[in-house]
Amino acid sequence: xxxxxxxxxxxxxxxxxxxxxxxxxxxxxxxxxxxxxxxxxxxxxxxxxxxxxxxxxxxxxxxxxxxxxxxxxxxxxxxxxxxxxxxxxxxxxxxxxxxxxxxxxxxxxxxxxxxxxxxxxxxxxxxxxxxxxxxxxxxxxxxxxxxxxxxxxxxxxxxxxxxxxxxxxxxxxxxxxxxxxxxxxxxxxxxxxxxxxxxxxxxxxxxxxxxxxxxxxxxxxxxxxxxxxxxxxxxxxxxxxxxxxxxxxxxxxxxxxxxxxxxxxxxxxxxxxxxxxxxxxxxxxxxxxxxxxxxxxxxxxxxxxxxxxxxxxxxxxxxxxxxxxxxxxxxxxxxxxxxxxxxxxxxxxxxxxxxxxxxxxxxxxxxxxxxxxxxxxxxxxxxxxxxxxxxxxxxxxxxxxxxxxxxxxxxxxxxxxxxxxxxxxxxxxxxxxxxxxxxxxxxxxxxxxxxxxxxxxxxxxxxxxxxxxxxxxxxxxxxxxxxxxxxxxxxxx
Length: 493
Hints:
With 493 residues, the protein is of the alpha/beta class. Among the domains are: 3-167, Cobalamin-binding domain (Rossmann fold, 3-Layer(aba) Sandwich), CATH 3.40.50.280; 338-493, Transcription Regulator spoIIAA, CATH 3.30.750.200. The chain has 21 helices and 17 strands. The protein has helices at residues 22-33, 43-46, 50-57, 74-87, 104-110, 125-134, 180-185, 193-196, 250-264, 277-280, 283-295, 301-305, 330-339, 353-358, 365-378, 395-408, 424-428, 430-436, 441-447, 464-475, 479-491; strands at residues 3-8, 37-42, 64-68, 92-96, 116-118, 146-149, 155-157, 201-204, 207-208, 226-229, 236-239, 246-247, 268-271, 318-323, 341-349, 381-388, 415-416. A hairpin with a 6-residue loop joins strand 10 (226-229) and strand 11. Helix 13 (330-339) runs parallel beside helix 15 (365-378). The chain starts with a strand and ends with a helix.
């Protein structure tokens, strides 16, 4: 059996470690289930120095060193695999996740230390390659869903691997192998009263994928949209319009939440689905989920007794999740509230119909407004995520957002439209991205953060300085100065 070191990269350097990694903790659980010797180095929790990373790498003889994450972790992964190759020259270095899936050849070129990359979902691929490794096989061409280097250093992308169907057979995350005390100390989330008062929070997944086709969202193969095509000697990753959504059974989800409460004392859960409300549209699924949730005693006492939330006396589990404005209705929201839902994270993006249509959001300004109003009436706090800097962004769309904020009495601090690799816009605007980074794609990858900072601008009407300034004027409701600048800009054209 292989001796494996899993490395969880730093997610957001300027924020506290708040979320135990769900996907990685599942892969760890799979490796343990299959009999491998496993150690987890959670750099996101510990925030180590380079010297401390090297000490961990040198602490044992690792057969496999596995890491991965979203593209925002690229900088840390780049440093880590370099140190891993330096300290552990004989280890197989495996990387996976969103940072490599949509652009495998580029990442393998930039990070020569990586021996093998997992493309798309890893639930079947990672244990498959470990089985071959244990048997001494290095014929990676027979493992679907990977990119690897042959002995001559030539990169090869193997055939597409179908999505894993039997997701209820997945083991529960191996949270016990992660420094949960670090994450639990930072459980408070500024999203709702119950989330702010949370003492032990975890995130988990009830479904995989999203049926929508927003142009700004990155696609990482979890919705069946990933396709590997082309001849054997020149396969390419293609992002298609196909969608296939998988969901756990209600029993699996409820049992996982109950396990989190009983074993770890969890009092707040974030459902990390792309769109949890889609599940609620299925009355058969949600009715069964409700019955099992109540039977398991997961309904919070304060909800049951209709009293104010007090973390000292409230048992059960509060939760928050994501929703699409075009999906929710009042009955659903009241139902959510009755089960302990504290907040819904809405990707509203904009209150301009022109913008919503241009980005393929599948909702309207009116639906966005109704979702906010209904949520408040149902006692569920809406989190109105928004973005500016879309290709078709205009003064009118910016002012439309401010007018909606005023009507609804809400405040938002918009993210900035970022063409992440894996999004439709990355491929559409790649030439423009490279122009802004002097043709250096890796410089762009290293610059990517969590969309709160400016990176590559794809707006047709505004540059980086203008977007940053307009965002501040929006937040301060300074319509007067926005209109003044509009006159100045138009007069110079």
